[in-house]
Amino acid sequence: MSRPEDTLPPDLFYNDHESRKYTTSSRIKNIQSDMTHRALELLSLPWPSLILDIGCGSGLSGEILSGVDLADGGPHTWIGMDISASMLGIALQRDVDGDLMLADIGQGVPFRPGSFDAAISISAIQWLCNAESSDVSPQGRLAKFFNGLYASLRRGGRAVCQFYPKNDIQRSMISSAAIKAGFGAGILEDYPGTKNSKLYLVLTVGGGDAHGDITGVVKGMEDVDVVDTRRKNKENKKRAEKKGSKAWIMKKKEQMERKGKIVKSTSKYTGRKRGPTF
Q1: β-strands 184-190, 198-204: how paired?
Q2: CA 200 – CA 131 distance, rounded (Å)
Q3: Which tens digits make up the pLDDT trace of 77-120?
Q4: What's the pTM value of the predicted model, to 2 decimals?
Q5: Is 112 in contact with 152 (CB distance < 8 Å)?
Q6: How far is the C-alpha of 118 from the C-alpha of 149, rounded, in Å?
C-alpha cells in the first residue's frame, strides 16, 4: 500500500473528497484522538495555554485541545495551520473553536517570536520530507519549518510532533533538522515493533527543567543516565575551521541547505586538496 506522501503534494491529495472521507472515518477519529491525548500528556501543560496546531486539518485535534477540563490544565486556546484549503473548509463547516490559517509549513511559521506556549502536530511533518520541485530540498523545507517553530515558541515552551517516517533516513533527517534549529529533542516510540507503533518527536526551547530527559520517560528510573550529544557537538564546533578545509566546506553546504538551496552531494573527494598543475 502506497503512502499518501508518495502520491501527491498534501494540498492536492487532500481535496474535497479525501478531506471529508478523512474527517468522517470513525477509525481515523479514534486514532487521532489517542495520539492527541498522548501528545498533550507529553506537553504536560499545567494551565490553559495558547497552542499552535501544525497541520490541523479539519480540526479533529483542535476539538480535543478546546475540550480539556479545567482540572487537567485546560481548556486551551489554539491556532491551526494547514496547507489544504479543503481541510480548512470542513473545519469551518464544523465550527471549530480555533482560528485557522492556510499556510505551507515548509515555508516557515509566520508568527511573532514567543507567540505560543506550546505546539502540537499529528501526522503532518513527514510530508516535509518530499520535495515537490527541483528547486527546493526536503532539508531546506525542514529547516525553514523548525527555525520558524523555534522562534514562535516562548522560552521554556514545548512542542510534540507525532509523525510517520518512511525509514530511518527520514527519522534522522527530521530530528537532525530540529536540533540544528536549536531545540532540545528526543524521540519517544509507543508500541515499538508492532504495526501500531507511534513516534513522537518531543521538542523543548531553552529554559526548561528536563536536564537532558526531553521526553520525561527517564524520570524516576534508577541507574539510568541521559547523554546530551548536543554538548559534545558544541565542544567540537569551538575548534577553529580553516577556510577551504573539509569541515569549512561542510559548514557552508549546511548553511546553504538551511536556506533551501540545492547543493552537491558530499563524497570522498569533498575538500580534498588537488596536486600541483603543470
Answers
A1: antiparallel
A2: 23
A3: 999 999 999 999 999 999 999 999 999 999 999 999 999 999 99
A4: 0.77
A5: yes
A6: 10
